[in-house]
Design goal:
The protein has one helix and 16 strands. The strands form six sheets. A four-stranded antiparallel beta sheet has the order 5-6-7-8, with no helix packed on it. Strands 13-14-15-16 form a four-stranded antiparallel beta sheet, with no helix packed on it. A two-stranded antiparallel sheet has the order 1-2. The chain has two domains: 120 residues, Trefoil (Acidic Fibroblast Growth Factor, subunit A) (Trefoil), CATH 2.80.10.50; 106 residues, Trefoil (Acidic Fibroblast Growth Factor, subunit A) (Trefoil). It is mainly beta and 257 residues long. This is Ricin B lectin domain-containing protein. InterPro entries: Ricin_B-like_lectin_EULS3-like, Ricin_B-like_lectins.
Length: 257
Amino acid sequence: MYGGCVALAPANPHDPRQHWLLHQAIKLKDRDAQPTFALVNRATKQAMQSPATKGFPIPLVAYDPVSPDKSVLWTLSKDARHGYRRVRWLGDTDLILTTIHDTVCDGTNLLLWPHNNRSSNQYWKIEPYDADILDELKACYPSWIKDDRYGRHVKDQDGYAAFALVNKATGRAIKRGLGTGHIVRQGVFNPYYLDESLLWRESSGSGFREIRVHNDASVLLHAHHADSPYFANWALVGLSKRNNGSGNQRWNLHEIN
């Protein structure tokens, strides 16, 4: 990986940046009935994404293993050359993962280009390496880090210290959305740049507490429909005004190993 894009490098089986997880997150197939998958880097937990146009380097982006964006989904061709197959982007299976001008050297970027039967650089083999990679990704994704480095300098109107909630897998933080009634988003977390839209505070007390917008104690994190058995496993989290009778507005932040 160079500059946030995927590139060739001398083989090193001990380098986690050279390990890729073929993750089949959703049951979606291409026009040839081939199953889709994402290619997720073991070191960064980021996925290969289709570039804006053919000929540009393949970028790496934050990966959502629960609901991946279609721009990070790929398929394999049915035909093979001695076990090697073409890796195609789901959005246009005529575009193939390759290198420019058949160049194979350290630092050569991967990109998308139309299929060319004469180019051996458009054929790949995906082989198993470590069965624990998926468990590692699953363990990281639902884990959040309470980052309170700004707490000494940023406080709300009641004097409570602010903090960010940063996802362990993606490095992105929970961000206020469009306001009450809307779901929250994930924003880029830069520890060297203060973005107040990423900051929250807890109510006083112990156990389950409110998580509030740091500069408006009346607006809280709210798990929509989490009290319904139909939505409990995938409730959306958004912002709402305080409702003292709702347990969906109370959270318990605790340490994990």
